[in-house]
Design goal:
With about 600 residues, the protein is α/β, with parallel strands linked by helices. It folds into 4 domains: about 160 residues, no CATH class; about 90 residues, no CATH class; about 240 residues, Vaccinia Virus protein VP39 (Rossmann fold, 3-Layer(aba) Sandwich); about 45 residues, no CATH class. The chain has 17 helices and 15 strands. The strands form 3 sheets. Strands 4, 5, 6, 7, 8, 9, 10 and 11 form an 8-stranded mixed β-sheet that branches. It is globular.
């Protein structure tokens, strides 16, 4: 008799989950269970039996596999009902119904399960295979016990857990890199040092009031529709095609058309017709990238569309630097492609007491004028809400001028070519004294821009003689290796999310907004060794008594780990359950822990 390998994992994993859900909630640990009760005539509640049938149907497994499983386990399981009617057959013939007074049915008793000498409690799911059943199962499924595994007889030991673990496919394991009890101290698990997610962000009151005033004073028609159109366009925007790639596509299309049209006559008219067909086909398969010219009207629409999202994304990046390095107090900041100046507002909200100079660089004079009006409360004259903010249309020329924090938020996508982006990134890195923060939209194009800039800095192609210190990744990657997302069979962008309260500009908003972005924080100094913890790259999937976490690990690999309190400890399990997308998890990948010693 053979058990289908594809059905082993789902069925046995479910049995373990059901066993733990029913039994372990009444006892402190596996050793505390009343093993003496797990004999012939144990009781299963009908609700759990229904859950078993529903789960098997949802898994899509053939019912015959489950029948073989329980046939090998024997007839040591009964299902108890609240009525004393005669026995009733289930769809699975290995079970039988019996009333409370039927032979073999056990009566639920009071609390005290799991303690020697205590009263026996109702354990809704209690069964244990005999030694003969274990041997038959191992032989039927071509499995062998692990070395050192002790198979207990029917009445005692931890045979069920060892039997189930031998049949179930093991999941990736993890172990704590540091003592979590020492790291946490008196802090609760929901505040472990890897928690980096901000609550809902909100614009400062002065900035929100100034933006609302500018929108109300504007005479632009259909402002809401223009905002929605610009938002959709910016989100769907792709990278411009490089000239070399464009020429290669044109050559391939020309070759295909020549083969389709047959031998050319060589006349000028035929060649002109061929070139026209190539251009027409090239327009259909090539993304038409267009440079945006921000005049006064488009700048105001951009402010209404992107002010909240840019503030939320940059606040999240600054919060991570402040949380991990609380002693870092920057004094100067450079914002390349400053736009409406939301980066300066976010930096002031984070390090307002230490920053002494803000330099905002943008080539659009209308955008700089709008950012200055926002600083002055929406008017052309007045006192600036943030002191020492300077506006320029060009970067400082002197190579000796450096800034503690350099930011380029949603600016690289406005450059027309790879050469222009590389030149700008190299210049910004030479201007960086401590941190370079790059933020782009949470799309494939945005992630591609971020990764290209990251590789350019890490490869050290541009080493300034005035500052030869190499670059290191501070966040979000826990390593300086190649991004594992780009080498996966299915390339997905590495993005993160930050929620915010949208500013009401006169049209209807529903709930809160969510900004999805891709970012990298590059540092002149290597991050502390204790900070090289895995990063949660997807939302945490919380299930009863276990948590699914998708991690980017310090070894440059992506891991899917399942944490439970029994296998990984209470502290690590609760830290994983309290973590969110984008947080760090204080754990390191390690070999599987030693097996449970026999009693």
């Amino acid at each position: 008799m053979q058990i289908c390998p594809s059905s082993q994992h789902s069925i046995y994993t479910f049995l373990i989950s059901l066993y733990e859900a029913a039994c372990l909630k009444q006892a402190g640990s596996e050793e505390d269970l009343p093993w003496g009760l797990l004999g012939k005539g144990s009781v299963i509640e009908p609700g759990l039996m229904k859950s078993l049938e529903t789960r098997v149907a949802a898994e899509g497994q053939a019912k015959s596999h489950l029948q073989k499983l329980f046939r090998m386990m024997g007839k040591g399981i009964e299902v108890a009902t609240n009525s004393a009617k005669s026995s009733k057959k289930l769809p699975l013939p290995q079970f039988r119904w019996c009333g409370p007074s039927a032979p073999g049915a056990r009566r639920p008793l009071a609390s005290g399960a799991g303690r020697p000498g205590g009263a026996r409690a109702a354990n809704p799911f209690r069964f244990r295979p005999t030694a003969a059943t274990v041997a038959a199962t191992m032989a039927a499924s071509s499995l062998r016990p692990r070395p050192g595994t002790w198979w207990a007889p029917w009445g005692g030991g931890n045979g069920l857990a060892a039997w189930a673990r031998a049949l179930a496919t093991p999941t990736p394991l993890a172990s704590q890199g540091d003592s979590l009890s020492e790291i946490l101290g008196k802090e609760p698990h929901r505040r472990h040092p890897g928690i980096l997610q901000l609550p809902h962000t909100r614009l400062p009151l002065a900035l929100a009031a100034a933006a609302q005033q500018l929108v109300q004073e504007s005479s632009a028609p259909n402002m809401e529709k223009q905002v929605q159109t610009l938002t959709s366009y910016l989100w769907s925007r792709k990278l411009p095609v490089e000239p070399g790639e464009l020429r290669q596509r044109a050559a391939q299309l020309e070759e295909r058309l020549r083969q389709r049209m047959g031998p050319a006559s060589g006349s000028a008219r035929a060649e002109e017709k061929l070139q026209g067909a190539v251009l027409s086909a090239l327009r259909q398969v090539t993304y038409h990238w267009k440079e945006l010219s921000y005049d006064e009207g488009l700048s105001l629409v951009y402010m209404a569309a992107r002010l909240d999202g840019t503030f939320a994304a940059t606040s999240r990046a600054f919060h991570e630097i402040q949380k991990r390095l609380p002693d870092f107090k920057p004094r100067t900041l450079l914002d390349f492609g400053s736009g409406t100046g939301s980066v300066s507002w976010a930096a002031h909200s984070t390090w307002g007491q230490s920053l002494r100079e803000y330099l905002c660089v943008d080539r659009s004079a209308a955008m700089l004028a709008l950012a200055e009006r926002l600083l002055k409360g929406g008017s052309d004259s007045g006192e600036s809400r943030i002191p020492a903010v300077f506006f320029r249309q060009f970067l400082p020329v002197s190579p000796k001028v450096q800034f503690d924090v350099v930011v380029a938020a949603f600016s690289l996508s406005e450059l027309p070519s790879l050469a222009a982006r590389s030149e700008v990134v190299s210049t910004l890195w030479r201007k960086t004294g401590r941190f370079l923060v790059l933020v782009e939209s949470g799309t494939k194009a945005g992630h591609q821009l971020i990764m290209a800039a990251r590789d350019l800095v890490l490869q050290g192609q541009e080493k300034s003689p005035l500052d030869p210190r190499p670059g290191h990744v501070f966040a979000p990657c826990p390593h300086d290796l190649a991004c594992p997302r780009l080498s996966a069979s299915r390339i997905l962008p590495c993005i993160f999310s930050q929620t915010y309260y949208p500013t009401p500009f006169g049209w209807q908003y529903h709930g809160h907004g969510e900004e999805k972005f891709s970012l990298v924080i590059l540092s002149r100094d290597p991050p502390p060794g204790s900070q090289r913890w895995p990063r949660l790259t997807q939302p945490v999937l919380k299930r009863p008594r276990h948590v699914h976490c998708h991690l980017c690990c310090p070894n440059g690999q992506l891991e899917h780990m399942v944490f439970t309190a029994r296998r990984h400890g209470r502290d690590l399990y609760r830290c994983a359950r309290a973590s969110a997308w984008g947080d760090l998890l204080p754990v390191t990948t390690a070999p599987p822990p030693p097996k449970d010693p026999p009693r």
